[in-house]
Amino acid sequence: MNSVDFDLIICGGGPVGQSVAGLLAQRGRTAARIALVDMKTPEQAAQDPRTIALSYGSRQILAELGAWDAVEKRATAIEQIHVSRRGHFGRTLLDRKDYQLPALGYVARYGDVNQALVNATAAMGLSFLRPAEVAALAEEEDHVAVSLQDGRVLRATLAIQAEGGLFGEQKQKNVQRDYQQLGLIAHVHADQAIAHRAFERFTDEGPLALLPQDDGYALVWCVRPATGEALLALDDAAFLAALSQAFGQRVGCFTRVSPRLSYPLGLTAGPGQTRRVVAIGNAAQTLHPVAGQGMNLGLRDARVLADVLARDLSPQALQAFERQRGGDRGLTIRLTDLMARVFAGSAQGSPLQTALGLSLGAIDLLPTARDLLAEQMMFGRR
Question: What pTM, to 2 d.p., does this model score?
Answer without folding.
Answer: 0.89
